[in-house]
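--- STAGE predict ---
source: upstream dedup step, 1 unique chain passed
mode: sequence only
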Amino acid sequence: MKIPTENAANKSAIESYLHVLHALMLRDMRTRFGASLWGYGVVVLWPCVHVFMLIGIYTFQKLAAPLGDNRALFFATGAVPVLVFQYISREVMKAVIMNRPLTYYPQVKLFDVILARILVEIVTGFLALLVITSILLAIGTDPIPAQPITAMCGYVAAIILGIGVGTINVAIIGFFPGWLLGYALFSIILYVSSGVMFLPSYMPDKIYYWMKFNPALQLAEWVRSAYYPYAGIQVDHLYVIMFGLTAASIGLFIVKHVVSKLNA
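--- STAGE serialize ---
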């Protein structure tokens, strides 16, 4: 008779955890729209519709792009990283509210619910980016940035910031469940002031100085700087990364040591 080794036990524990994570991800994808995986397509296309509605409005009004000569490229480069950040930060909070009963099972922890939704939102953002890129190519717009590494780092920063603010949101709703509505309203302010629809650097210096404390604005400028390197856009990369990592650390600490005890 074979005696289970420690490595085999660890492998079994990892496999069990991955199964739990996989089940949570599938549940999130199936329950968002229409209780089917086809409904998940709506989730992917939603940010795409948002971006191209914005482009359509400005095209219909015959307004010139604030930078460059391509409206579609200007709005897409600003909107996509901001939407990636906002979707992750909001949906992580909603996942905890929707899946809280699952945490009564010993196999499912609150952190598992958070991680599963983060992974789903990262995949969703990546698919949405592919769709937007494909549509831009179809309408004759070159979506390849002049500095691809800078653009890629900007999207990664959007994910980090979304995770950080999302975990803070989870901590807040542990005490104030109504924060779900409050953050929705707060997100509108962040979006409007993030520079998706205009170029913040054209604002007066005193106003622009305070606007740059909005990390969402820095995200939009980060990605735009990869497409318009000649514009001289200055981005505080360390500020965005540290904001996201600090928020994630504080949020996870509160979730683990405070919210988990309240739910016990």
